[in-house]
Amino acid sequence: MTLTPKQAEIFRMIRDARLTDGFSPTMQELADGLGVSRVTVFEHVEALVKKGALTRDKNKARSLAIAEDYALPTEMHDGISFPLMGRIAAGMPIERLQDDETLSLEEFFGPRTGSRGATFALQVEGESMQDEGICSGDYVIVERRQTARNGERVVALLPEGETTLKTFYKEPDGRIRLQPANEAFEPIIVDDCQIQGVVIGVLRRY
Q1: How far is residue 172's CA from residue 200's CA, in Å, rounded to a whole number?
Q2: Does residue 6 carry a catalytic annotation?
Q3: Contacting residues for 142 by C-beta, under 8 A, at least 6 apart
Q4: In terms of Cα–Cα distance, which of 51, 191, 77, 65 is closest to 142?
Q5: Helices 5-20, 27-34: inter-axial angle, 10-degree rounding
Q6: 5-66 architecture in CATH?
Q7: What is the CATH number of domain 76-203?
Q8: 74: which of 54, 169, 184, 202 is 20 to 30 A away, CA to CA?
Q9: What is the torsional sign of CA 180, 182, 183, 185?
Q10: In this predicted model, what pLDDT tens digit does every residue of 124-162 receive, in sequence order?
């Protein structure tokens, strides 16, 4: 369903804040950022919820969230490019492609389990995943998902609001272990975390 320009702007503000800050802006923060009233923002947010772009818990602060698998029509990938939505803490390498190969990104990254447009890119900062071949400065291609299987590399939102790139493991006691791929870093053990996506590929520019 088509969004108005103002609705699309609010959608981007919420999406980008959740990726960079780990939480959604308040109605007042959205209003201040747009230079409009809270009533106007509320009307646009309600319209976004009805259109299936956002979800919210009316009884909880900062509960606005992007609906799973939703992407702006202008940001749906065409099999060649992906929207770059921010940066993610972690780290390191990917094998060099042969010079005589023709690469179709759509074929290279394989079929998606989500809907068209559910894939996005993040630029990596840090070295915690270097032994998995993911370097600082690389771009990870992420399929937007809210669940993961053991051994998958995930973008995880931690309880304290930080976002990180690690390998996901569900421990026997029910806790979650986010495992780095670098002996210099300790695993992160949490009771719960929010999975924002699963890494399906890595890109590097030489």
Answers
A1: 26
A2: no
A3: 119, 120, 121, 122, 155, 196, 197, 198, 199, 200
A4: 77
A5: 120
A6: Orthogonal Bundle (1.10)
A7: 2.10.109.10
A8: 202
A9: negative
A10: 999 999 999 999 999 898 888 889 999 999 999 888 888
Name which of 134, 157, 161, 159 is nearest 146 in CA terms.
Answer: 157
Which residues of the chain are modeled with pLDDT < 70? Answer: 1, 69-118
Q: What is the rounded CA–CA span in Å between residue 78 and residue 84? A: 14
pLDDT of the residue at 12:
86
Nearest to 19 by CA among 95, 115, 123: 123
CATH 2.10.109.10 in the chain is located at 76-203
Comma-separated ranges of CATH 1.10.10.10 domains in the chain:
5-66
The catalytic residue among 51, 128, 136, 170 is 128
Q: In this predicted structure, what is the pLDDT of residue 4?
A: 85
Is 50 among the residues known to form the active site? no
β-strand partners of 170: 176
Catalytic residue among 37, 51, 166, 170: 166
* pLDDT per position as a tens digit, 89-104: 664 333 333 344 444 5
What is the residue type of 133?
Answer: G
Q: Collapsing DSSP states into helix, strand and coil, what is residue 139?
A: strand
User: Which pLDDT belongs to residue 99?
Assistant: 41
